[in-house]
């Protein structure tokens, strides 16, 4: 697709239904992102997310999108400690959730991890720029590559990721001039999330673009729906209907077979004295 200059469509997903919607929509790739920490579990960041959580959600996504390229996101401390830990945990994604690739954050400093996973026969996506797992070192969720020095560091990281054998790379929140340069420099596909229009494809976080996650919205997000609003309106209407006893309606019930109902009424009448049942 990079060679054909056919833009790659890429979305996060954390569950079966959303993955099936993405597949129906013709999405090229799905990331089971550790952003599920915020979007699904309500944590204030991605740090607490565990391998077990990632595996459960990746399995659900795989079932929802059996024919789409699915990438499992390696959570904090699943690869930072050693090459061996990186291989074992990447392997869990492939063995248990049947993903097509794994993603890990970092450039030069995780090159040996990428190499080790690739050497074990697995596909890897690199992720540089604003890397949420190291956001405290970056001074928060801040765009990267906005100065010459930082831009050069992004280029160096991108080259290290490709050199280590990654099959593709994701650039997060870096200026379009820097991502365009990296896109031209690398032979592997370069995906963007907040890295401008000049990349080989675009990623958005599904909870942002559908308007499910409302705590904050990064600048690079385009809203395609207002699901939180629609859901809250629907739930409010349900509460109102139950309180007003207008739900359920006759069409929502399972009526008894008529002759069985007559027998049931006779039985109730005979039981009345014994059990104190009320008139219906
Ligand atoms: O977890 C995720 O969704 C990600 C994106 C922020 C790129 O890693």
Structure description:
The protein is an alpha/beta fold. It is 42% helix and 14% strand. The chain is built from ten helices and eight strands. The chain has helices spanning 16-25, 36-39, 51-64, 83-97, 111-119, 148-163, 176-185, 206-209, 227-243, 258-275; strands at 8-12, 29-32, 69-73, 101-105, 124-129, 168-172, 190-193, 201-204. An eight-stranded parallel barrel has the order 1-2-3-4-5-6-7-8, surrounded by five helices. The longest helix is centred in the C-terminal third of the chain and has 18 residues, at 258-275. The chain binds 3-methyl-2-oxobutanoic acid (KIV). 3-methyl-2-oxobutanoic acid binds at residues 12, 31, 33-35, 73, 132, 170, 172, 193, 205. 3-methyl-2-oxobutanoic acid binds next to strand 6.
């Amino acid at each position: 697709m990079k060679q054909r200059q056919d833009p790659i469509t890429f979305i996060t997903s954390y569950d079966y239904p959303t993955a099936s919607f993405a597949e129906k929509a013709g999405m090229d790739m799905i990331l089971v992102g550790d952003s599920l920490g915020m979007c699904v579990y309500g944590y204030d960041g991605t740090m607490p997310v565990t391998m077990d959580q990632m595996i459960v959600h990746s399995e659900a996504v795989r079932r929802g999108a059996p024919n789409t390229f699915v990438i499992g996101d390696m959570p904090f401390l699943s690869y930072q400690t050693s090459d061996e830990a990186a291989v074992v945990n990447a392997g869990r994604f492939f063995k248990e959730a049947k993903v097509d690739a794994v993603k890990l954050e970092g450039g030069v400093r995780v090159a040996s991890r990428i190499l080790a996973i690739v050497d074990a026969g697995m596909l890897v996506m690199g992720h540089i720029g604003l890397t949420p797992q190291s956001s405290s070192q970056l001074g928060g969720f801040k765009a990267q590559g906005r100065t010459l020095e930082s831009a050069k560091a992004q280029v160096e990281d991108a080259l290290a990721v490709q050199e280590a054998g990654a099959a593709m790379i994701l650039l997060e929140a870096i200026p379009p001039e820097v991502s365009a340069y990296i896109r031209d420099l690398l032979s592997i596909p370069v995906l963007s999330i907040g890295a401008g229009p000049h990349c080989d494809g675009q990623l958005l976080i599904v909870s942002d673009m559908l308007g499910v996650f409302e705590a904050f919205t990064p600048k690079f997000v385009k809203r395609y729906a207002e699901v939180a609003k629609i859901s809250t309106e629907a739930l409010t209407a349900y509460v109102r209907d139950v309180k007003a006893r207008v739900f359920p309606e006759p069409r929502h019930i399972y009526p008894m077979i008529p002759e069985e109902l007559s027998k049931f009424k006779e039985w109730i009448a005979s039981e009345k004295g014994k059990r104190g049942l009320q008139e219906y």
